[in-house]
Design brief:
elongated; 4 strands; two-stranded antiparallel ribbon; alpha+beta; about 90 residues; two-stranded antiparallel sheet
């Protein structure tokens, strides 16, 4: 399809997020593209906040949320050293 300036990335996008019709076509219209762009912009903002926190840890047990904390908030070696346990 490169002769139509439609590369594989666009084909994959349409197949992943488009609507499959009974006649074998998959359609990704402007409305759906706009919704996808808004959703990914929101996801990018959330990812940026997680990045600024240095990463996150979520502890779950059987699907139940137990706790969450920043990835860099717990430094096992540093804590042991402060407690005099690091040999």
């Amino acid at each position: 399809m490169s002769q139509r300036a439609i590369n594989q990335d666009l084909v994959d996008l349409t197949i992943s997020y488009g609507v499959a019709l009974p006649d074998g076509k998959v359609v990704l219209d402007k409305k759906a593209i706009k919704q996808l762009m808004e959703a990914t912009a929101s996801l990018q903002q959330i990812a940026q906040r997680a990045f600024e926190k240095g990463g996150l840890v979520v502890v779950v047990d059987g699907g139940d949320l137990i706790t969450t904390y920043r990835l860099d908030s717990y430094q096992k070696g540093k804590r042991r050293k402060n407690m005099g346990l690091n040999r």
